[in-house]
């Protein structure tokens, strides 16, 4: 039972946030994770459990995780957007088929989102994650407005602006990061293009499905008008085959959507998160640089004071220098730690991506294969009917 | 400029009378004009040579068709439908769009799209050659029409026909054709039928025509959707190619998407030829049969009018012999039309059934062949991906 206002949400947001939030009756079952390394993860109370969560709960979880772990350079998996930003609306066909699609897409995206979170060894340790998975009732997440599609995009854009401004200033030891960022940016471009193309494929396949159904009806009519008995039969058999073909095309469109298009949409979001981690690294670097310039200023002040012979102020200056020296050391260490994390995370991301992509593509091709095998059966059944025409 | 050779006619079983064999072995496409090479092999003494070829344009075929339609003696025959004008609009428009979008595509994508368009161009070309060839073969296999003088001129005259065509146009003025178009439905349904056979035929043909017209349109839409999918695959594989630089799996997938695209493209064009073209051809043929019914209905109307005129003449006791002669002629014409029309419509049925059978069998066999091809491709690719 879905209580759902997808597109209306935007208007409702402002005035009715408290009341009309969409409520998902999604049952996410998570089994007790396998032993990772040596830890047995006794932190989960039961082996299998189900909870009910609202869409805003997912967004709330993401916000918490990204606040806590993002600055450390972790790639925090993002959930699907609040609105359909970035996804072309497929309005071919009846109204309900388009919204059923949307609901299924969202459900799948949320499931994969959670799966990625629990697959991440560090994130799994986070108590907020455990709470999300286990606790009966979650308090309503406030201020998830930042994660509406537009807000999300704004965040990413700000990050990329910052990155592009700073890239020039970084030194050569960061060549790996520079190259990686470029790769990520070009991949993002290609994925967006690919997504649009696959959505176009879906539209055309749905069109084909409609046109096939329409032709099937027409062929049946023609068959009933035909006065040669055998030909009349063959025509109505042809109509039946085309009806079956329509079904195949529908299934194929679903395959295109859920196995192919959605996978690409996932990666577009993830690439955004990757760029976010680069941004956090930049911020850490900037903080270190700022501390260094501040230290420099303090030293200059001290030098001036030495000349002016003001012992109290001099003492203060010396204290400040010590303070900033400590900060510089700290921030440098932070930066190195964050860089190391980002590096590890990116490598992990790429490995996971390859694995997932391969799995999805096999799934997609297997569905195509099944479809073609069915097709052969249908036409082989029709052939004797055609030969029987006399 | 595109040259093309060797094509077997698909729609109907023709050309088995060895005394007059016609084919279009090749054609040239120059900008907008298609030049067909009409090749004749004959044992008939009425022709000057036993084996010869002439170049002909689409307009020459139309001229021939129109002169046949406008010949009184053939009023009782189903005149084979005129071949439609070669229509390269669709591929030409796409080629234009492709040129405009060239900057946004990779070189491979552009090349692939261009290849696809050239294949589409070639498919349109094949279709138009086929349909012009069938027109001539229908004539050559008809006992009466094959002897037509203009037909012989069309086949043999080794100068440019366009001069002769212009003169003919002046003679007939194309008036008859316009009349047929507007009046036939009303007249056919309005006339009181005396003959059961024709009554049934009339009902059948009118109904069948509207249904086959609908089926043709729907089949066309199906084919177009298939082509769109094939085109999408091209763009998708090109984009995967760009991603493939950093991803080994994508590289392998690229090939399969390209192959699937080719198959999808073949499915589309075969469906077009076997199904859509078949329906389209018989839609036009049924129109030709309806034209026959129209002419007969007109002859019946003329006869009825001549009866009325005779009655009037008898009343007035004036010009009776002329009226009687006119009535006799009308009756004779009507009877001749009915007799010949019956024969024509009966053989038309047989022809239609044979053609549908042939094309349905071929269509099913091609669908199976393409699907088996896809299955092999997919199985191979899945194997490869799983083994890595």
UniProtKB/TrEMBL annotation, chain A:
Top-level taxonomic group: Eukaryota
A GO BP annotation: protein transport
Coiled-coil annotated residue ranges, if any: 314-341
GO CC, any one term: lamellipodium
Gene3D superfamilies: Arfaptin homology (AH) domain/BAR domain (1.20.1270.60), Phox-like domain (3.30.1520.10)
Cited PROSITE patterns: PX
Subcellular locations according to the entry: Cell projection, Lamellipodium; Early endosome membrane
Entry-linked Pfam families: PX, Vps5
Membrane topology: Peripheral membrane protein
Keyword tags: Acetylation, Cell projection, Coiled coil, Endosome, Membrane, Phosphoprotein, Protein transport, Transport
Predominant localisation class: other
Signal peptide residue numbers: none
GO molecular function: phosphatidylinositol binding
Domain PX: 1-140
Xref: InterPro entries: AH/BAR_dom_sf, PX_dom, PX_dom_sf, Vps5_C
Family listed: Belongs to the sorting nexin family.
Protein name: Sorting nexin 1a
Record organism: Oreochromis niloticus (Nile tilapia)
From TrEMBL, chain B:
InterPro entries: AH/BAR_dom_sf, PX_dom, PX_dom_sf, SNX5/SNX6/SNX32, Vps5_C
GO molecular function: dynactin binding; phosphatidylinositol binding
Pfam family, one: Vps5
GO terms (BP aspect): pinocytosis; protein transport; retrograde transport, endosome to Golgi
GO CC list: cytosol; endosome
Domain PX, chain residue ranges per copy: 1-161
Domain of life: Eukaryota
Signal peptide from the UniProt entry: none
Keywords, in A-Z order: Protein transport, Transport
Family membership: Belongs to the sorting nexin family.
Protein name, as recorded: Sorting nexin 5
Species of the source: Oreochromis niloticus
Taxonomic lineage from the root: Eukaryota, Metazoa, Chordata, Craniata, Vertebrata
């Amino acid at each position: 039972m879905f209580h759902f206002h997808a597109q209306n949400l935007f208007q409702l947001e402002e005035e009715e946030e408290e009341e009309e939030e969409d409520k998902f009756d999604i049952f996410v079952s998570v089994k007790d994770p396998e032993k990772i390394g040596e830890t047995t993860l006794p932190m989960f109370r039961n082996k299998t459990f189900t909870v009910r969560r609202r869409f805003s709960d997912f967004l709330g979880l993401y916000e918490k995780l990204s606040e806590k772990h993002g600055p450390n350079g972790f790639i925090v998996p993002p959930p699907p957007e609040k609105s359909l930003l970035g996804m072309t609306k497929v309005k071919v066909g009846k109204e309900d088929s388009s919204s059923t699609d949307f609901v299924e897409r969202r459900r799948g995206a949320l499931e994969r989102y959670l799966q990625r979170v629990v697959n991440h060894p560090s994130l799994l340790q986070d108590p907020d994650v455990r709470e999300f998975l286990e606790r009966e009732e979650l308090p309503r997440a406030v201020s998830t407005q930042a994660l509406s599609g537009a807000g999300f995009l704004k965040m990413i854009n700000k990050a990329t602006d910052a990155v592009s401004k700073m890239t020039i200033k970084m030194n050569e030891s960061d060549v790996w990061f520079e190259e990686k960022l470029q790769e990520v940016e070009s991949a993002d471009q290609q994925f967006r293009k690919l997504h649009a193309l696959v959505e176009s494929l879906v539209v055309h396949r749905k069109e084909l499905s409609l046109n096939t159904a329409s032709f099937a009806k027409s062929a049946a009519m023609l068959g009933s008008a035909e006065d040669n008995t055998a030909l009349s039969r063959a025509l109505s058999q042809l109509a039946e085959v085309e009806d079956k073909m329509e079904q195949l095309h529908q299934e194929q469109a679903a395959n295109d959507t859920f196995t192919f298009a959605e996978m690409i949409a996932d990666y577009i979001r993830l690439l955004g998160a990757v760029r976010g981690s680069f941004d956090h690294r930049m911020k850490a670097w900037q903080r270190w640089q700022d501390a260094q310039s501040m230290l420099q200023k303090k030293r200059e002040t001290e030098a001036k004071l030495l000349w002016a012979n003001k012992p109290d102020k001099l003492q203060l200056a010396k204290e400040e220098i010590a303070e900033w020296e400590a900060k510089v050391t700290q921030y440098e260490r932070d930066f190195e730690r964050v860089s190391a994390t980002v590096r590890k995370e990116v490598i992990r991301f790429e490995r996971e991506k390859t694995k997932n992509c391969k799995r999805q593509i096999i799934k997609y091709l297997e569905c195509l294969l099944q479809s073609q095998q069915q097709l052969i059966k249908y036409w082989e059944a029709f052939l004797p009917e055609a030969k029987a025409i006399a | 400029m595109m040259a093309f050779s060797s094509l077997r006619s698909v729609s109907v079983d023709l050309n088995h009378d060895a005394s007059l064999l016609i084919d279009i072995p090749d054609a040239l496409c120059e900008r907008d004009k298609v030049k067909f090479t009409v090749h004749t092999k004959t044992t008939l003494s009425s022709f000057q040579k036993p084996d010869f070829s002439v170049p002909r344009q689409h307009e020459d075929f139309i001229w021939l068709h129109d002169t046949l339609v406008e010949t009184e003696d053939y009023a009782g025959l189903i005149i084979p439908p005129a071949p439609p004008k070669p229509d390269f609009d669709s591929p030409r428009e796409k080629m234009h769009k492709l040129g405009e979008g060239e900057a946004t595509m990779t070189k491979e994508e552009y090349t692939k799209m261009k290849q696809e368009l050239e294949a589409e161009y070639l498919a349109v070309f094949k279709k138009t050659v086929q349909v012009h060839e069938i027109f001539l073969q229908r004539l050559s296999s008809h006992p009466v029409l094959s002897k037509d003088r203009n037909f012989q001129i069309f086949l043999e005259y080794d100068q440019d026909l366009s001069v002769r065509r212009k003169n003919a146009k002046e003679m007939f003025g194309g008036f008859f054709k316009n009349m047929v178009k507007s009046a036939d439905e009303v007249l056919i349904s309005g006339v009181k039928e005396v003959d059961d056979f024709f009554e049934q035929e009339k009902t059948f043909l009118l109904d069948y025509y509207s249904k086959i017209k609908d089926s043709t349109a729907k089949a066309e839409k199906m084919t177009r959707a298939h082509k769109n999918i094939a085109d999408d695959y091209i763009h998708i594989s090109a984009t995967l190619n760009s991603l493939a630089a950093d991803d080994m799996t994508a590289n392998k997938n690229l090939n399969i998407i390209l192959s699937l695209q080719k198959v999808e493209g073949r499915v589309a064009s075969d469906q077009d030829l076997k199904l859509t073209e078949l329906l389209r051809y018989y839609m036009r043929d049924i129109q030709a049969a309806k034209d026959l019914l129209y002419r007969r209905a007109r002859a019946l109307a003329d006869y009825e009018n001549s009866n009325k005129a005779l009655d009037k003449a008898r009343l007035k006791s004036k010009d009776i012999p002329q009226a009687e002669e006119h009535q006799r002629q009308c009756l004779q014409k009507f009877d001749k039309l009915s007799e010949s029309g019956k024969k024509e419509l009966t053989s038309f049925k047989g022809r239609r059934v044979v053609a549908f059978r042939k094309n349905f069998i071929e269509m099913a066999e091609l669908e199976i062949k393409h699907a088996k091809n896809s299955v092999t491709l997919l199985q191979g690719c899945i194997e490869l991906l799983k083994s890595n």
